[in-house]
């Protein structure tokens, strides 16, 4: 372009949603958890005071064997596959859920009282990339049965704003809504730049807490440069306001929003509990087999 978008735009802002909310965007520490040899990525973990209701959110990349069956309880697990992923995932849980999640789809698992879960790629030689969000539900559905739903790619609203393509993966953005029973207003918005462009991003003053993660390329938001290099990611906590946003051609930014619970939570071993006593109860239920088991896939 003759006039490329600057990557250090000047900050503009308006009043935060409530008196004790910070009106200044903040960079969040990003880590790379060692899941297994088949999975890699980077995201925001173990910062619940800052990211409530999100227990974690990360950009993942998987290649090869599946991650073995593992339990979840007291949380919602949203798994979104980027459209350019090279294979689908077969997603099962021990209480009867069995769905094929294709590139561009979102799987939403409400673990509730607990279930054993696994994702198996259709092609073990192919690569999938996407976003995983773990949302706090500690103590809210202690006796509810687990369940999962899939939001297909063709059900997600898509639109263009200048040189930016937007996809509402789940939740609500302005007047656009993804119809789904679970998740309420938990929102994931994808922004893809076809060309360099500078624009504004209006974070709504509606009680939700928002985070931005750079998934690929290079962008700048509210005066902070964001780069995804070597499979990594950078994250920014965004208060309500109108912020300047610049992106380079090929950049992808993910914007996640959810309503804070403002309650204590203990999150360990994929279990979200209200306190240590609840955590012990969930762990015991899993050890006793109450969260079920998954038989190996034999096809």
From TrEMBL:
<dbReference type="InterPro" id="IPR011051">
    <property type="entry name" value="RmlC_Cupin_sf"/>
</dbReference>
<dbReference type="InterPro" id="IPR014710">
    <property type="entry name" value="RmlC-like_jellyroll"/>
</dbReference>
<dbReference type="Pfam" id="PF02678">
    <property type="entry name" value="Pirin"/>
</dbReference>
<dbReference type="Pfam" id="PF05726">
    <property type="entry name" value="Pirin_C"/>
</dbReference>
<dbReference type="InterPro" id="IPR008778">
    <property type="entry name" value="Pirin_C_dom"/>
</dbReference>
<feature type="domain" description="Pirin C-terminal">
    <location>
        <begin position="206"/>
        <end position="291"/>
    </location>
</feature>
<dbReference type="InterPro" id="IPR012093">
    <property type="entry name" value="Pirin"/>
</dbReference>
<feature type="region of interest" description="Disordered">
    <location>
        <begin position="1"/>
        <end position="28"/>
    </location>
</feature>
<dbReference type="InterPro" id="IPR003829">
    <property type="entry name" value="Pirin_N_dom"/>
</dbReference>
<feature type="domain" description="Pirin N-terminal">
    <location>
        <begin position="49"/>
        <end position="132"/>
    </location>
</feature>
<comment type="similarity">
    <text>Belongs to the pirin family.</text>
</comment>
<protein>
    <submittedName>
        <fullName>Pirin-like protein</fullName>
    </submittedName>
</protein>
